[in-house]
User: Fold this.
Amino acid sequence: MSSDLLRLDLRALSEALTARKVSSREATEAALARIRESEGRLGAFLRVTPEEALAAARASDERAAGGRRLGPLDGVPLALKDILLTEGVETTAGSRILEGWLPPYDAAVVERLRSAGAVLLGKLNMDEFAMGSSTENSAFGPCHNPWDLARTPGGSSGGSAAAVAARQAWGALGTDTGGSIREPASFCGVVGLKPTYGRVSRYGVIAFASSLDQVGPLARTVGDAAVLLQAIAGRDERDMTSSPAPVGDYLAGLEEGVRGLTVGVPGEWLGGGVDAGVAARVREALAALERAGARLREVSLPHSRYGVAAYYLVAPAEASSNLARYDGVRFGLRSPAKGLAEMYGETRSRGFGPEPKRRIMLGTYALSAGYYDAYYLRAQKVRTLVRRDFDAAFESCDVVAGPVAPTVAFRLGEKVDDPLQMYLADVFTIGANLAALPALSVPCGLHPGERVPVGLHLVGRPFDEATLFRAARAVERELGPLPPPPGY
Amino acid sequence: MALSLEDVRRIASLARLQLSPEEERVFAGQLSAILDYVRQLEELDVSGVEPMTHALAGEGVPLRPDEVRPGLPPERALAAAPAREGTCFKVPRIIE
Amino acid sequence: MDASDFEVVMGLEVHAQLLTRSKVFCGCSTAFGGEPNSHVCPVCLGLPGALPSLNARVVELAVRTGLALGCAVRERSVWARKNYFYPDLPKGYQISQYELPICEGGGVEITVGGADRRIRLTRIHMEEDAGKNLHQISPDGSSGVDLNRAGVPLLEIVSEPDLRSADEAVEYLKALRSVLMWLGVNDGNLEEGSFRCDANVSVRRKGETRLGTRCEIKNMNSFRFLRQAVEYEVRRQVEIVLGGGKVEQETRLFDPARGETRAMRSKEEAHDYRYFPEPDLPPVVVSPALVEEVRRSLPELPRARARRWQAELGLPAADAALLVADREVAAFFEEALQGHGRAPEAARKLANWMNGEVARLANESGLAPAAWKLRPAHLAELLRLLDAGTLGGPGAKQALEESFRTGAAPADVVRERGLAQVSDEAAIEAVVDRVLAASPAEVERYRGGNRKLMGFFVGQVMKEMKGKGNPTLVNALLSRKLGA
Assistant:
């Protein structure tokens, strides 16, 4: 029974809960059992909270018994990237400097999931402070890809993607600053969406780069991702960068197909530098869209090749400032020290791992006197150029499509010693963050040689997540669902 | 663009990071490589281009009304403090 | 070459706390004091994940101040992070404004030694206050951090280096404080730190056009300390230059106990604040409609009102200046004028009573005008009783004291206390006769030419009449009797 249950997608589980064919408690116990038997090899979770989950499941079952389900997420077991604050439940952002910290409040998205009745299973592994593309930068050990344990799940939301792929949870939330939802979604064969900047509240999300960070869903299907976004989208007065623009109905047009839709394919994205197997699967997905009635059209994003450079100035600059609050005074780690200067220096040196240190150094340098104009300011201007490219493209197409990453999931240890190579894994995803646009990764089959998933990348107009879901759903329908990883 | 060890030490001191000699050496190399890579931005003519420092323009963003709302009681505010004295956060002696 | 060959060049940076209920980026109370860390929340504690949410009132008050001081108000101003580490700065950065502040230009008018000057403003920007470090909170010498103040909204008002003396600095600070209080944007409290200033002081030889090296002086929480600190600092710098040395650019702390400034050790390190636009806050948009709305709501400002009173009522400049030093006092005077009449003679008399007796009673009681029991109508009534001769000077002072203390109407006080002046000629004459009969020697000497003794006789008569004799009649009767 329990493994049958695990095969249902989120929406199917939700229907079964409404019909009372299954209880939230059964679903939660099935998920917890899967976590117990698979965590030893995966490392997707930093913390599992079975008591809290079962209590929430009980409350949900009582509501269901009274015919008062709160909505499609009521009783559905989900998990959270450990960058989202959970009141009274340790939240570390994958860093030693926050080890043992119990936040006194819930992130806005966590509040929303709770009030939708969701069951929260625990906190998911991630690169420290979301800095990384492989989850190897977690201070608490790496996460493995359920398709191939020798490979990374991608990052930084690697735990979120791995947990969804391994059927440990029916959905998860992650954050995406330069590709941190889409790249792991692509590597693990799940759907991952980075919403438009401002679509989802960042309140209670541990900040990496404030002008780029967004929370988004990772799910088994496009429809499941749409249900999750529906629950977390909308303005929050505590986050002034959250948009007052009205939230659409993401499920209404989901099955409408892509007839009449124009899909822009940037020449810059399928040129050299993309693995041949990845390119082949992406081309098949584009062909599938065409079969389903979409028109393909070549577009140009001439500045996209400057994205990584601009990103690796803007994001570290903001990070260097965002990470200044980890000073050992009010919360988190403190090194015992006689003087103030020693307290700061030792606390931060012991608390931060190499990647946050590297980015703090880079960002501090980019903002420092005499370098601001040449680095930070110039990078922000290039951002404007990147956005203009997309604006121009969207005059002749409705979504832009290409690969999520130049390769499939790489092997653990393969890039850890060369930060620049690791950064280049984000070359296609970074543009949407710089331009504040919504973007999604949907599975488009397995790599012909390596038998691990490839993702198709779709980027949309601001606040037009509905069209992204519709196009992604067409791909999913045409290509058929990706099976779970072997053994799951 | 090569960063000297001296540069690395100056930045580390601004960022309150106490680096080991080994870290200083590694960072000098890695940061120099990254700075070399980002130099490609110099190819672009950005004169007259506004920086995109904010994704939202500011217009139409409602501001918060001036009302007092409950915060955290001192015990909760101090619950995670590594050191405290009374209801103060305790730190090593500050010299002005 | 000596000290008189030097001139002082100085600008002030004033930090004024805006009178809001809640902090600038969160809903915590701005109330002064309280148990440490009792007005805090995730935002002002700088907890991970917390984000700033801008208080609309802060923008409104900044615009109000800018318009009142003649500044240009920027339609889109930008928040910036100022990055530095200090225990009282929870986020490791202060949210402030840098390249694009909300207001620029403008000025403050001052009068020093009878001459009017306009001190130009560079800019006004909004920012959040830091918390408070408490020293030696435990036997091991540790410091404590209280974040109740962290996130309290401030305006930083920066002047051009237009000030040339300690007198000018004090006058500038007083004038600015009065305007801010008048506008209702700040409570003017230097002791509690809700109105504080730093001074950038430099000296140069007269005739020199280049600026000398400046020092920033902090911790002057009264007008007296500002004067002392500036005077000390100018002496110090002049001595260095005269001794052939060079002034070091540094931040110096005023020590009120010694009346000296000293270099701050914590500020020795060269600063690099790495300002950049605050990504968590969109630009502040001040629409032309808001500017118009605020402009319409601006009150007449103190110097304008003082000028108007000088012209309309013929008040001396000094009297008018005293009356407008406090908005409530000015309003009290204005209302009393309604009851008393605006003729120059009457208005001057009213102003004298306001700046004299009423000010004395207010000082002695320590009460702010809002807490006075005395009503403007009472003062008008008192002056009417004086004019009508019902009250004499001493009686009027007594009646005012009573009204000030209890809030009773002067007419009632006069009746109940029997303070009315005696103008009955026969009654006064009887007393005069008694006094003269009792002092034959003095009468003799007066008639012998010692005219100063008139005061003695008046005193005796008044004493017998408990101060209530009409002084004009008393004088007239005594002159007649003694002259005979």
